[in-house]
Amino acid sequence: KNLVCGRFALGPLKKGQGQLISSTLRKTLFNAIECTCFTHVKFRHSRATNVLQNIYGVKESISEILDNLNQIKLKRKFRSDLGDLQGPLYASIDLQGPRSVRAKDIKCPPGIVILNKTQVIVTLTDNVRFFAELTIETNSADSLPPRRLETRFPPEDGYAIDAVFTPVQKFSESIHLQDFENENLQTEMLFLEISTDGRVTPYDALLKASEKVITLFLSFYAGEKKGTYSDLAERVRVKAIKSSDFGEDSEDCPDDWQDSEDWDDWEDADQDWD
Prior knowledge:
By secondary structure, the chain is α+β, with helices and mostly antiparallel strands.
């Protein structure tokens, strides 16, 4: 499947800080990054009583339709005129067969964009009308209600979609020491590689994960110190080395990204972080 790969560097850091930061970011990236998914579908004029049955005039079973809907990638666009898109929002499909119904045929609300428009949803084999109402929600893996995925709806109320709120697919890190004659001045550079499914860019995922971690730690300063995200951000430099769509597999990214000559300018950076 297509992945978007981004590579970043963080530093200079004191020795040991690279591993601390990467371990914290790893869990946050995989569990706390919000994305948008279809979470529920309701079919009109359906006589099916369970997910293994077919809707009249539709080739796929309801179970297969739910799986196809789950493969559709949604991206939320932030627009000031749309207000809060946290949801739930609603989309619909209303078509007459015979024909193939794809993701591009979904009527989405403003601010919601479908990334893989050619994804097949159903195949209408007869002259029947296919109408479906879809629920759209924005959430993160660690914010899902307990036992949400085990919820069962009566057929007349629709069916839950096993939505996956995990846009980050891969994360890897590499730590490189910068040696100086004085061991007390030894620093390190942290290199990160983040791959997402496109619903969130690697750079945005890194920013959101960092903000969540910083906000959590700032809570300990309540009533003691007033800290801001920008105050802490000034103490460390982040550089995006490369972020682009590498097609079917992010492993196609070049392996020499850590040897970029751009980092020569960092050697004279201020080492005093106290």
